[in-house]
Specification:
This protein is of the alpha/beta class. About 35% of the residues lie in helices and about 25% in strands. The protein folds into three domains: about 170 residues, Rossmann fold, CATH 3.40.50; about 170 residues, Dihydrodipicolinate Reductase, domain 2 (2-Layer Sandwich), CATH 3.30.360; about 80 residues, Alpha-Beta Plaits (2-Layer Sandwich).
Length: about 450
């Protein structure tokens, strides 16, 4: 057997400990696949006691609370960054690359914001940066996009890529409880952080979508062009009405090639979306992730699994360690490019602002229950060439003079819908603000 490849682990939280456990448990199998043993010989962590307990009795494991010791140590071949966040992770990863070490990371925020700089540094130095664990946890979606689907022109991707939000929406639908109540329950169960903003406002999903979009379309990562809208404003009424119309509401990350006003562009958007209930992805429940990819040759393919958790994420981290081990000696020109396309062949297709996106819409309006109201609304829509696909008008509750109207529109450009909503809200018979949720058929 060849000499082991030595790994320095930065961070020994949930994923770090999971990586240690899975690597120890499946050590022999992994070595048979990689062609040589993969050993963790350095761990940098603030929780030294926890790491000491885990590594108890393992020969040759060194512990430190200073990650730069690991990054600069001559006996470390691969630096595995599992700290999360932007700094100090960015500085450590760039330092590891400068030292000529390969990097494996699970850090989606870091790559979405600084991936272009990191990959350029790695290419210049001839080292690899592997990041399967950064998107959808244990689901090998990066591998599928970069390698498995490489023959295809990717048309679009739609993914449930945040488990916390999906858990909340699943529970709201199942129990009829409010967002606030379900969020509290998710926090109690450890599915949601004490500050859940990144998850429930779509930021985490936008990080992951930015990475997938770059790989799918061969463009540089541009997180600042992503549109993100979360689920905190969703009500149980809308979840129920969507169900009545044959739809489920999911927080989707959507990226697609599109032609807006005659020019090519890329959509990059995260928002609650009505999806037909008969679609497989509409039936992904709880904290699970699923990514639907449409390629021109293969059609639609679906990738499903655990998007978080110690061992699912470790599964992806270790797959990257094996890839790096196998390719370690390969000439850099023969490795899979970081973003699937050769670095000098990336194109700068513009990302479309949300106002240019074309999709269909669910609209819920509170109106006075009297003649002529509907005629006014449909006229405003017709003037903007927005056609209605379906409509429900609810009977007003006993003694009430107001009622809900739910409209589903055909596909139209978002800025027209914005204009129509502003005009409808100005009608004297329409009360409060209109609820607007985007719809995707995904067929």
């Amino acid at each position: 057997m060849m000499k082991p490849l030595n790994v320095g682990l930065l961070g020994f939280g949930t994923v770090g400990k999971g990586t240690w456990d899975v690597l120890c448990r499946n050590e022999e199998e992994i070595a048979r696949r990689a062609g040589r043993p993969i050993r963790i010989n350095w761990i940098a962590t603030r929780t030294l006691e926890r790491a000491r307990r885990a590594a108890d009795g393992s020969a040759g494991v060194n512990l430190t609370d200073d990650p730069s010791v690991v990054v600069r140590h001559p006996d470390v071949d691969i630096v595995c960054e599992l700290i999360g966040g932007i700094e100090p992770a960015r500085a450590l990863v760039l330092d590891a690359i400068a030292q000529g070490k390969h990097v494996v990371t699970a850090n989606k925020a870091l790559l979405a914001h600084h991936g272009n700089e990191i990959f350029a540094a790695a290419s210049a130095k001839g080292v690899m940066v592997a990041f399967e664990a950064a998107v959808a946890g244990g689901v090998p979606i990066i591998k599928a996009l970069r390698e498995g689907l490489t023959a295809n022109r990717i048309e679009w991707i739609a993914g449930i890529i945040n488990g916390t939000s999906n858990f909340i929406l699943s529970e709201m639908r199942a129990t009829g409880a409010s967002f606030a109540d379900v969020l509290a329950e998710a926090q109690k169960r450890g599915y949601a952080e004490a500050d859940p903003t990144f998850d429930v406002e779509g930021i985490d999903a936008a990080h992951k979508l930015t990475i997938m979009s770059a790989i799918a379309f061969g463009v540089p990562m541009q997180f600042d062009r992503a549109y993100a809208e979360g689920i905190s404003h969703l009500t149980r009424e809308d979840i129920r009405y969507a169900e009545e119309l044959g739809y489920r509401i999911k927080l989707l990350g959507i990226t697609r090639r599109a032609h807006a006003s005659g020019r090519e562009g890329i959509e990059l958007r995260v928002h609650p979306t009505l999806v037909p209930a008969r679609r497989l992805i509409a039936n992904v429940e709880g904290a699970m992730n699923a990514v639907l990819v449409k390629g021109d040759a293969v059609g639609a393919t679906l990738y499903y699994g655990a998007g978080a958790g110690a061992e699912p994420t470790a599964s992806a981290v270790i797959a990257d360690l094996v890839d790096v081990t196998r390719m370690h000696t390969a000439d850099p020109e023969h490795r899979v490019p970081h973003l699937a396309f050769q670095p000098d062949r990336l194109t700068d297709v513009p990302f479309l602002p949300i106002g240019e996106v074309v999709t269909s819409y669910y609209l819920r309006l509170r109106v006075d229950d009297r003649p002529g109201v509907l005629a006014d609304i449909t006229r405003i829509l017709a003037d903007r060439e927005i056609s209605i696909e379906a409509m429900i008008q609810k009977e007003p509750p006993e003694g009430e003079e107001r009622t809900d109207i739910i409209l589903l529109t055909h596909r139209t450009v978002e800025k027209r819908i914005d204009d129509a909503i502003a005009n409808i809200e100005a009608l004297p018979t329409v009360r409060g603000t209109i609820v607007r949720i985007r719809m995707e058929e995904l067929n």
